[in-house]
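debug: dumping io for the single-chain case to check the tokenizer round-trip. Nothing else runs in this session.
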Amino acid sequence: MNPQLRRLWLSHERSGAPQAKPCLQASAALVSQLQVLSPEGERRYLRGCGIVTLPLPQLNTVLVARKTRSAECFVVCRDAYGGVERYGLFELQPVEEGG
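debug: decoded output
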């Protein structure tokens, strides 16, 4: 299992939520796509790749989001409470092989 997916799996296991397994499968698929679009350590405006929304709470263990002022770059991210935040620049977090 690659390091980002392993980190995601562990965070979902710790949550103990009954919906964790389906959520994990969807998150794992999204992480796989993100790895193709934005290799680890490379910052990218995902709106330009066709991504307009992201479930940030499910991905924040592997993805760093940064705000932008450019409305054309906004990606709408739902927080854990259903609120909306707009981010633009995203980067997969580097993962140490031992962690």
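debug: round-trip ok. Strands lie at 44-45, 53-54, 63-66, 75-78, 84-87, 89-92.
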